[in-house]
Write the structure tokens for this entry.
Amino acid sequence: MSRKGFFTDSTTCIGCKACEVACKQWNQLPDDGFHFTGMSYDQTGDLGCSTWRHVAFVERPVPLPGHATGVGDFSWLMVSDVCKHCQRAGCLEACPTGAIVRTEFDTVYVQPDVCNGCGYCVTACPFGVIDRRPDDGRAWKCTLCYDRLGDGMTPACAKACPTESIAYGDLDVLHERAENRVRELHDQGIISAYLYGKDAANQPGTGGLNAFFLLVDKPEVYNLPPDPVVPTMKAKEAWSAVALGALGMAAVAVGAVLFGRRGSP
Amino acid sequence: MSSSGKDEPSFLDKLQQRGDGRNVNPALGTLLGEGAQQRVTDLDGANPAHTVSSSIPSRSGVASADSPSYHGLPAIKQPVWIATIPTYLFVGGVAGAASLMGLVIDVLGEKELNPLARRCRQLGTVGDMLSAGLLIADLGRPERFLNMLRVFRPTSPMSIGSWVLALSGGLNTVGLVLGRSHGVLGAVGKVSGCSAALLGMPLAGYTAVLLNNTAVPLWQATRRTLPLFFMASATASAGSLLSLLPHTPREAGVLRPYRLAGKVAELAMGYAMEHDARRAPEVARPLDEGVSGTLWKASRACSVAGLLVDALPGRRRWKQVAADLLTTVGAVTARFAVFHGGKASARDPQATFRPQRRGHGAAEVVPGHAVASDGKPFSFPLPVVR
């Protein structure tokens, strides 16, 4: 099977949230309550156990180059966030039960019948995607519609996107398409357009994202980390410290037994 | 549907009354979706994003053009662990250190010290059992705790730790039960006890790696020193607890240097850990402010007092008891401070963003990686001369 993924183009997102609805409906996810957050049109907040697509809304007091608005200096930034299905996935490398696996489509999938809800993946994800549902006790995240891919179908969110802001397909094809799009935008004068997490060269900390993005502002604006790293890459130093500490523990115990004073009260 | 009036609930009302928020009538369609298995009891309680967004704006002040954030929302998820985890961080450490001490006394100590070695083993075994219980209590699906031993994954400190704890607990029990037998059974018991004691060292230290190997800024930033702090603290606590139990004057001669060395190391490593965290001010913030800040200061004070009272001249029992209690309280509080500090730093988006901009993200471990994901060079605190 070829490597599949999403290319999410923030410049064509119109913030209709059809992806959120399609995802909820296809995966039969429960709602998260109906609340107004006071954060622009974003009433969803973030990705979570029962929210696998999330449209971010940023009202920016800076215009996009070449765009004219009737309200002065202003631009909308919208992007549909999703699990990134990292090449080096923090959740997968942290999962102690083997519940999180990499599928034949190169996506990351949580097996609900194996997950015992230890919550370690929740802390290991550098993007804050995966979450444990308190009443269910298991970790959940986007499956990249594993059940649809098996039948050769497009994931629900990409199918529902009216502007093709969410494109699904083979990663090679998506990469080419994304690079062409960036070139097109640069020609139009939107020079801030760039690809976030396209490959290991762009984001060595994750080895590249299977669901990568085209953004026009800093990643932080969209709640994406600027230089994410899979925690496992840094664990070597911690294990070295454990080895050093083990020597110390043994030395203290040996020293105390050998040199501990005889007959002291 | 509206013609039916107020008495009859509409179709949608009926669906809403089912209360799982899916609005799917199982009589009309089967629940086969990937998320359909989610057990739902409390719709509003399940997604904390709304409370977070309304009650916890960015703790790092107003987002500026230099360091923006998304409506001040957390960049990563807060750890979902409950209070049993920091309790385990303490109990597991004590169990590991005590098991190791038991082995060292057995190998190097004279016969007079055998009862102390046995007490060490007992403390280790009880600690292992208690640890397993504390960990299982935290699981979302406790009935599936055996899945922890379904695979061995070297990249996951939790997988390694589960195996270490399971083996250590099992072997310690065998060692304790068969330790006094003769012949083959006795040999099996001795080998088991020895193996369990050796596993005590990783048991006391891996709990720190468990925290270090996460995206939580405070925990990830202290990866060079947190293991040393936990292991020193484990030694100090094990020494204090063994001293609190009744012991002979000869045993006291061994326990005193053991305990004191542990307490000194714990203090030193605590300061080293704090220093490590302070490489980034946003990361160290939870050690100064809020619940975790108070806990951390209290823990430092208890540890200092525990050492000072212990080192004072005088051999009265109450003095010893006070010193050991202070050290124990300090060690427990330190675990809770680190735990809640991690939660607080996960809630602060700037603790994730700003250090990464300064090259504390992947740039720390990937040689030659000089620009962030948006192509901007990292801003190091000092100008880089090339």
